[in-house]
Amino acid sequence: MTSHTCQLLVVTAVLHAVQLVTSYSFNNCINKDYGKTFTCWRRTAENISAIVGDLPLSTINLTISFNPIRHIPDKSFVHLPNLIQLSLERNKLSTLGEHAFQSLHQLQVLNLSTNNISHLEPFLFKDLKNLNFLALTLNKLKVLPNQIFLTVLKLQILHLEENNLNNFSQIASAVSHLQNLRTLNVSFNSLTSLCHSNASLPPSLSNLYIQGNNLSSLGCRRSFFSKLKYLDLSFNPWISTEAFEGVDLAHLNHLRLQATNVSIIHFLNNSNVRPNSVDFSNTSLTNDSLVELCKVLGRRAKNITHLNLNLNLIQQLSSTSLQYCPQHIEQVSLSRNKLKDTNCLLFLNHTKDIKVFKAEHNHLGELVSCKGKIIFENLIDISYRYNWILSVSNNAFYNTPNLVSLTLNMNSIAKLSRKAFEGLRNLENLRLDNNLMRDLYSELFQDQVNLKTLNLNSNRISVIFSRVFSSLGKLKILDLGGNTITRIEKQGFHGLTSLSKLILDDNNLKEIDSSQYYAFSDKLKVLSLKSNKISFFTQTTSSPFMNLSQLSKLSLDSQRPYGLILLPQYFFRGLHSLKELYLTNNHISHLAPDAFDDLTELQYLNLDYCCVGAVQLQPGMFKNLRNLTRLIVENMGLQNFSKEVFGNLTKLRSLQLNRNVMHSIDVDTLESLPNLEYIDIRNVPLSCTCENSQLQNWTVNNANVQVVFLHDHPCQESTKHKFYSFDTKVCYADLGQYLCFITAAFLFLFTSFPIIYVKLYWTFKYSYFVFRAWFSEQWRRLRDEEENCVYDAFISYNSSDEQWVMEQLVPNLEGNGSSFKLCLHHRDFEVGRNIVDNIVSAVYSSRKTICVVSRNFLRSEWCSLEIQLASYRLFDEHRDVLLPVFLETISEQQISSYHRMRKVMLKKTYLQWPGSDCTHPEQAQKLFWTQLRRAMKENSQYENDLCKSTQSECEISGDIHYLQP
Description:
- The chain is α/β, with parallel strands linked by helices.
- Among the domains are: 32-155, Leucine-rich repeat, LRR (right-handed beta-alpha superhelix), CATH 3.80.10; 181-279, Ribonuclease Inhibitor (Leucine-rich repeat, LRR (right-handed beta-alpha superhelix), Alpha-Beta Horseshoe); 762-963, Toll/interleukin-1 receptor homology (TIR) domain (Rossmann fold).
- It is built from 20 helices and 46 strands.
- Helix 1 (3-18) packs across helix 9, helix 4 (264-270) packs parallel to helix 5 (287-300) and helix 10 (761-774) packs across helix 16 (861-875).
- The chain is elongated and about 160 Å long.
């Protein structure tokens, strides 16, 4: 076999072995849903073909952002005809080829925002016949070609804001034929007028955004806005009231005039606009002009329900400020004014139907008691966030008893009176986060029996006193994060029987007290304890989560200052429903192999930067996580990736191994993850050696498991070389030489075996029986029970000598007063049992084995096996069990070919049957039986005593001793 042939065989074998699992990678993109959605962010490639050239035909959604791409050439996406959404925002695009989007007939969404595009080719969108959304926001466009939208007849939404467009007539002409256009946004351009030629806006257009331009006049026909429903003219500081003279605004549902020079009162009196469609935010209203506005609304808009007065100059409201406004107003917003006091909402006394009131971003300093004030039965939502509120007095909301939502966050509340929320029995949502509160008292929430969400995040609470939440039996979400909590009293969470989400992030808790969780053990689903001071220095014997059997999400990230340090062995016991676990940034020194054993339902595990230094994960660590679908083990210092650790994750789909220190990854382990779809090995120092040759083949030649940015992965030895392309031929050549050697050895054995078999057939067969007997369980059992032998002697003889055995041996040993019990094969072997098992049983059930040796005996296969077993006990077990009896004289030359028998003769003294040629046969035979009986009774001393007592009868010939009477 040639070396080249051997190499081909090896390559074929290796390829076959590693193709059990398939993988794929893309140069500059990451796949999100198996071949359909791709994101290509923050890459260094400047050529669009380098980014999208390797994407599959199945691509539907594609996002290419934050890249240094400057030009899109013709036919860049021709290989992606199934694209439906394409985003090219936040690149450095300045030019687009006229046929850049050729063949994208299915494209519906195209985003080209935040680039440097200053020019569009007339037929750029020619093939985009199904396009319905187009964004060109934040570019440098000055003009639009007339034919630019000629073929995109299905376009519904067009964003052109933040460009340099200055000719509205050109814009109108470009979009006039778009019969499906609903939204046109040309905000923050350089338009000075809406004057246009004969071309009119499409009748389908309902939303027009023109804010942030330089309009001084509209310059349009009366019917220009007649089809619009939403018009935004905000932040056009030069536009005045006179600009609307003769313009039809009667069909508008919403009009915004923020930061314009329009006198809102004059505008309402001199236009046909419906007052209830106008947003009065940022229209320079003052305390006095507000009264005038209400008078107009009272005359012309009695059905108005929403009154937006944000961003005005209103500083103070009296009980008469809104007396002329329609009584059926449901929502009033006074955010971003300069209010210093709400005076218990007395200014709303004429709006009996008020439901929502907002006064955000004002200068409110306190909320005083409103007991005895006008009751607002219908008010259900109040928001005072982003004010300067320092204190909330008792009964501050006494006159709004039916509040459902109360927002007081982003203030400076340091004093919250114990009865501040008295009477609010219908309250469901309460936000007090980002204040200066220090203490919580049991009386504070005693009336909030229907509260469902309570946010106390980012205050200065240090202790949770006993029974402070005892009335909140319906509370589902409690956020106590961002405080300085160091202690939770024994019944601190008493009463929270419906709580499903508890946030205790960024506090100073040093331990997890299991007794705290009894109150809501059956309901709690989410528990966040990240950024506390929890740590363990010794193993614990119990879990603090034993009662949280329904918990589905647990966060223990970033414990301060040094992390958890040690993860106790039974720490997660009881969390049988947990699906998400976060342990990032914890500097754990040791992970016990059974740390996660109880988390049988876990689906997401994040261990990013959780450990200290290099980590050797213990075998079986993830053995019970059979439902895990996403595992993040980034930056853990992992040194190994073995099947013993990761092999049981049969449902794993996403595996992130970034920034670890392993030099190789076991392909067999990857093959044991049948559902793996995504693996990230960036910044793992893989060596470009033969050790990783199979891994390279696995990552390059397969197609189901995405290896993120494989083509950028450098070799550890040299960053100039890439892992996916390092030369592996030498690896296959070495294996080929070994394969050739193995093949040659196999052929030699294959051709030699028949010859060896013919020549050594009996040796093989004999060895087989000995091997089988040696491993027999019965052998071992009988060895252990030797002291309770069944027989005195097992008689091993050839069938040709059976007459002597039956006529001489048996009568003299079992009769004549001898009373020995003999084992004879024809009499005592078990019928139907394997003959080898019978022989083994006979040898080990007898104290002695008497071999009746004759020339026929030496030639017998079964006799040879019997003496082999008996001699094994003699030589290897050092047991004196063998008694050779020669029926006829056999010369040393004749016996030398029987190696085992010759070895016995050199070791043992044996008996010679005195034949008829003996001088005194009767006396000799009598002495023979006497010596044989004595040998059967004796043990190790038999040989010496026998020789001494019969010295006169012994004749020595060579190394063989003959005992003759």
